[in-house]
Write a structure and sequence with these properties.
By secondary structure, the chain is mainly α. It contains 22 helices and 5 strands. Its EC number is 3.4.-.-.
Length: 564
């Protein structure tokens, strides 16, 4: 499976190696006199122009590293950004925030246009502590180390050295012996790196706890809620955990019984929980994957296909697995060029097909935002919004999976996507609960951490599974979730947004054209609004209360039952 790897996909309009030159541009901004509202607005524009140049270069260097963690020059450039530019950026961002908040015109600028920025920057001024800068740099270094370890992880499969994503794809296999073999090899690989991962996580927990203490918080959980400017409370999250356990897990257990029967197994084991009722991977070559997904997008909306074709032609897609490539997948926007880049490290599987569709939801969202509103600024980006459009794209394309599957397989593929929707309602949420525990108990040991991860996993996704004899393997499997290392507390947003995406599917079943137009409308509106307002523009509600959890769980179960 091959793919040409384009290199010139971002614009480097600032030399980040010229540290003095970068710092001089920050100083100029700090020295600009602001004597009117128009001066303040011009200053904000000049600041934005500088910041997006820096961010595009840093994003490009980061993606370069994720694409090839073994290249010494690429790594050196990326580490320079992390160790030199990032501290400089944090230092001057704090000074610029102070200048903005101290301006006599701070409260006079347009609330609709700048209200969210004002609240976010006020929050940053209150949270900033200079002593946290080296701690945050160290946090990034540990994240980089994680990427290197995972990117270099290989497994021997039938006499050949294979990257981990290939073995993970074998968990889909209908042959139970193949699934079990893949499961055991993955856990064996995790066991090899477990001491390194424990050391990384131990240090991260202590670093993050100290960052929170320095900023005046009791724990990192409370601190992160303020830094993320969440529009809901910690208690709302705990209530969500309970409501999903109450209403979604029983439905998941019923669904597991159906799958157990279809798999013809008496006991549902950990390697059965991953199985797909599909005979073969949906593609063998990346080109076939891209051809098919392009067709699916085009049948949904011409604009979706146009953006995909553009990305394909301009080297903005890096899919497929190879040694030295960082794990996972993501879509990231390039704010100067106005493009989006999709990265994925995946072997042929049902999941990799869905993952590309998911990331194209992000990409379409990004292109619509850029064309309607200009570059999306950091303060506007909220995961609860971004994930609505990625999950939403998955479900809008649910009825087009026959692009890759025959008639009978098509129905199974639809069931698999809807089963994935179930997992999105509790999997990320259980990861959120795990992180709440870690950071409110920062003195925990690696053994306690593994035990807690097993306990939470058993309460949620592994509830219907016979885990006997594999408690230790399951307990240490948190090492495969990069969010815990690189994107702390970025998990519950997947579950919240899936409730919105299911509402979008509900709308699509009633009126496909209107649902797609609502998707595009919401994805292109001014992101200075509240999350609830943006969801409303998309034709859905930002609501994860018990009645909504119960209703959408029942809807999802019925949709699965209705596939004949």
């Amino acid at each position: 499976m091959t793919q040409d790897i384009a290199q010139n996909y971002y614009k480097e309009l600032i030399d980040l190696q010229d540290v003095e030159g970068v710092e001089a541009q920050f100083r100029i901004l700090l020295e600009v006199p602001i004597e009117s509202i128009s001066d303040l607005e011009k200053w904000l524009k000049d600041e934005k122009d500088l910041m997006i140049k820096i961010m595009e270069a840093m994003i490009g260097h980061q993606v370069d590293f994720f694409r090839n963690t073994e290249d010494a020059d690429i790594k050196s450039t990326f580490l320079h950004d992390q160790q030199v530019i990032q501290p400089l950026l944090m230092k001057y961002e704090a000074k610029l925030n102070e200048k903005f908040c101290d301006s006599p015109y701070f409260n006079q600028i347009d609330e609709n246009r700048y209200g969210l920025m004002r609240r976010v920057r006020e929050s940053k001024v209150k949270l900033f502590r200079e002593e946290n800068i080296p701690l945050m740099v160290k946090e990034q270094e540990l994240s980089t180390k994680y990427s290197e370890i995972m990117g270099g992880l290989t497994v021997e499969w039938e006499g050949e050295e294979k990257p981990l994503p290939f073995v993970e794809s074998q968990l889909d296999n209908l042959d139970r012996a193949v699934r079990k073999k893949a499961y055991l090899l993955i856990r064996s690989a995790y066991r090899q790196i477990k001491p390194d991962m424990d050391a990384i996580m131990d240090e991260l927990v202590q670093l993050r706890h100290q960052i929170a203490l320095n900023a005046g918080f009791e724990n990192y959980c409370d601190y992160i809620f303020v830094t993320k400017n969440r529009e809901y409370s910690v208690q709302d999250c705990y209530d969500f955990h309970e409501n999903v356990e109450k209403h979604i897990i029983p439905a998941w257990n019923r669904l597991a019984d159906v799958f157990k029967s279809k798999l013809s197994v008496d006991t549902y084991r950990p390697w059965d929980n991953t199985a797909k009722l599909l005979k073969n991977p949906p593609y063998t070559e990346v080109s076939t994957l891209m051809d098919g997904v392009g067709e699916m997008l085009g049948k949904t909306d011409p604009y979706f296909a146009d953006r995909f074709d553009y990305m394909r032609e301009h080297g903005l897609l890096d899919l497929g697995d190879r040694k030295g490539k960082s794990p996972g997948g993501f879509c990231i926007d390039l704010p100067v060029s106005g493009n989006n880049f999709v990265f994925a490290n995946m072997s042929p599987s049902f999941f990799s097909l869905i993952a590309l569709i998911h990331e194209m939801g992000h990409a379409v969202n990004g292109y619509l935002q850029f064309s309607e509103q200009g570059p999306l600024e950091e303060y506007q980006w909220r995961a609860e919004i971004a994930e609505l459009y990625s999950h939403g794209m998955e479900l809008l394309l649910l009825d087009k999976l026959n692009q890759f599957y025959s008639e009978e397989e098509f129905k199974n593929a639809q069931r698999e996507e809807l089963r994935r929707a179930f997992t999105m309602l509790f999997g990320p949420l259980s990861g959120d609960l795990f992180q709440h525990w870690m950071y409110t108990n920062p003195k925990h040991t690696p053994k306690e951490r593994d035990e807690k991860f097993f306990e939470i996993s058993k309460r949620y996704g592994l509830n219907p599974v016979d885990t006997s004899g594999f408690e230790e393997e399951i307990g240490m499997s948190w090492v495969g979730t990069l969010h815990f290392i690189q994107y702390p507390f970025y998990t519950i947003e997947y579950s919240i947004s899936m409730l919105g995406a299911l509402q979008l599917l509900e709308n699509y079943q009633k009126d496909p054209e209107l649902a797609v137009e609502s998707f595009k409308k919401g994805a292109s509106v001014d992101y200075n609004q509240s999350i609830a307002a943006i969801y409303k523009e998309t034709g859905v509600s930002f609501d994860f209360s018990e009645p909504t959890v119960k209703r959408m769980g029942e809807f999802l179960e019925k949709v699965i039952q209705d596939i004949h």
